[in-house]
Amino acid sequence: VMPVARLGRSLRCRYSSDRDILMQFTATPIGGVFAFSGGVHTDARGSFQRTYCSGAFAEPGLVLVVAQAAISRNTATGTLRGLHFIPEADGEAKLVRCIAGRIFDVAVDLRPASPTYLQHISVELDAARGNALYLPRGVAHGFITLQDDCDVLYQFSRAHRPGVEMGVRWDDPDLAINWPMPPVVLSDRDRTLPFVKDLTGD
């Protein structure tokens, strides 16, 4: 199990003409999962951030995440959401960023044919840094808030389809995710999600 990402090389968006707003995608050990950073220009007025560029996404071959967007508001420290996913064949790519506060964000590879199946990476998403995480189809996602009043923005490659989303337990021993704290707030649904072995029959 791989609990923390050891990030690979960065890919810079050639569509950014100003060095101050370069967008960078950094490969993680899980194929298709990228950490996003950069894109912020700061001056006396404050800051301006480029949060999405279709050319930047197309350059490393990422699926464009323009079909739908959503925000989750999380009022309490220790609020946990996840782990949610849609099986790869019907899945969606997503870009996740924290736009208020800080979260411990997790991506779990649930693609059975993947060489990193059941491995995961984690990254702290911080509104002050403006960083984000890109997840391809078939990769589960979850997070826990590190402070009160965290807002999380999601961008999806496909619109929401009722009944297709699945999930696995946040504390599944076969995943062994090292969460920074136990959850304080957890939905009944997420509390009773199955373990991976219950989905696979192993």
Describe this structure in words.
There is one protein chain. The protein is mostly beta strands. Helices cover 7% and strands 39% of the residues. The protein has three helices and 15 strands. A seven-stranded antiparallel sheet has the order 1-2-3-11-8-13-6, with no helix packed on it. Strands 7, 9, 10, 12, 14 and 15 form a six-stranded mixed sheet that branches. The protein has a two-stranded antiparallel ribbon with strand order 4-5. It starts with 9 loop residues before the first strand and ends with a helix.
SSE diagram, text form:
Elements: E1 10-12, E2 23-27, E3 34-38, E4 40-43, E5 46-49, H1 54-58, E6 68-74, E7 79-85, E8 94-100, E9 102-109, E10 120-126, E11 132-135, E12 139-145, E13 150-156, E14 166-167, E15 185-186, H2 188-191, H3 196-200
Parallel strand pairs: 7-15
Antiparallel strand pairs: 1-2, 2-3, 3-11, 4-5, 6-13, 7-12, 7-14, 8-11, 8-13, 9-10, 9-12
Descriptive terms for the model:
single chain, 202 residues, mainly beta, seven-stranded antiparallel sheet, six-stranded mixed sheet, 39% strand
- Number of separate helices: 3
Reading side by side through the largest sheet, how are the strands ordered?
1-2-3-11-8-13-6
Judged by helices, strands and strand pairing, the structural class is mainly beta
Main sheet summary: 7 strands, antiparallel
Number of DSSP-assigned strands: 15
Any idea what the radius of gyration is?
17 Å
Distance between the termini: 18 Å
Low-confidence stretches: 1-11
Please bin the fraction of helical residues: under 10%
Beta-strand percentage range:
35-45%
* Succession of helices and strands: EEEEEHEEEEEEEEEEHH
What gross morphology would you assign? globular
Please state the average pLDDT score.
86
